[in-house]
Amino acid sequence: MQLVFASNNKNKIQEIQQLLPSSIKILSLEDIGCFEDIPETSTTIEGNAILKANYVTKKFGYNCFADDTGLEVEVLNGEPGVYSARYAGEQKNAEDNMNKLLFELNDKSNRNAHFKTVIALNINGEQHLFEGIAKGTITFEKKGVDGFGYDPIFQPQGHSSTFAQISMIEKAKISHRGIATRSLIDFLSKE
User: Fold this and answer.
1) Residue in 1, 9, 6 with CA at minimum distance from that of residue 53
2) Percentage of the chain exceeding pLDDT 70
3) Where residue 27 falls among pLDDT bands split at 50, 70, 90?
4) Phi-psi group of 186: left, alpha or beta (phi > 0 → left; psi -120 to 50 → alpha; rest → beta)
5) What distance in Å separates the CA atoms of residue 172 and residue 183, rounded to the nearest whole number?
6) Please, which residues have CB within 8 angstroms of residue 158's CB and are 6 or more apart in sequence?
7) Catalytic: which of 68, 96, 107, 151?
8) What is the DSSP string of 1-45?
9) Cis omega (within 30 of 0) on the bond before 39?
10) Is 68 an annotated catalytic residue?
11) How many other CB atoms are found less than 10 A from the CB of residue 27?
12) Cα angle, residue 90 at apex, residues 114 and 46 outer, rounded to 5°
């Protein structure tokens, strides 16, 4: 089975491909000749995943899936949420985003947060949604060099390391994207 993953984020593609059985081959947007930025204009994580999946299905005709992920911080009323990638501006710089978040939490004792991933799958004329949530806290400083995005400042519940301090394989077992992807895989294995 071939599925388009509506992303050109090589880290995400690699993370998801390693979770999928070898019978499912992932194609990136680049692989199908889609070089435009798909607009993410929804005010929800679910909405953006649906927008991206629908764009690829309508314009290119492929079965595909798309994900959207946000980091939601309790004391900031769910911010940065749907704006996680561009929290510190349109340059979408992970360092800037982490620095802004650490600044916003500077005097806060409640550092509870969770990552939320929603995957929208368009297959055989139907749409299915899969969700994954990873609860944790925002650390006081960056720790670790692996991972991407907010990983150096997110410590998952029940762990003493940040997502950036553990291997991709370990992260996939407990992460929001891993949880959502396993739900997707369970569904696809029954197709």
Assistant:
1) 6
2) 99
3) very high
4) alpha
5) 13
6) none
7) 68
8) -EEEES---HHHHHHHHHHS-TTSEEE-TGGGT--SPPP---SSH
9) no
10) yes
11) 18
12) 40
Q: Going by C-beta distance under 8 Å and a sequence separation of 6 or more, which residues neighbour residue 14?
A: 168
The CA distance from 13 to 32, in Å, is 14
> Looking at the DSSP assignment, which residues form a beta bridge with residue 132?
117
Domains of the chain: 2-189 (3.90.950.10)
pLDDT (tens digit, 9 = 90+) per residue, 130-147? 999 999 999 999 999 988
**Which single residue is written with the structure tokens 């991933």?**
117
pLDDT in tens, 36-82: 889 889 999 999 999 999 999 999 999 999 999 999 999 999 999 99
Q: Is residue 136 classed as helix, strand or coil in its secondary structure?
A: strand
Give me 175's structure tokens. 């992460």
Q: Are 119 and 65 in contact (CB under 8 A)?
A: yes
Residue 5 confidence (pLDDT) above 90: yes
Torsion (CA) 98, 11, 36, 49 in degrees, nearest 10 = -80
The pLDDT tens digits of the residues spanning 75-129 come to 999 999 999 999 999 989 999 999 999 999 999 999 999 999 999 999 999 999 9
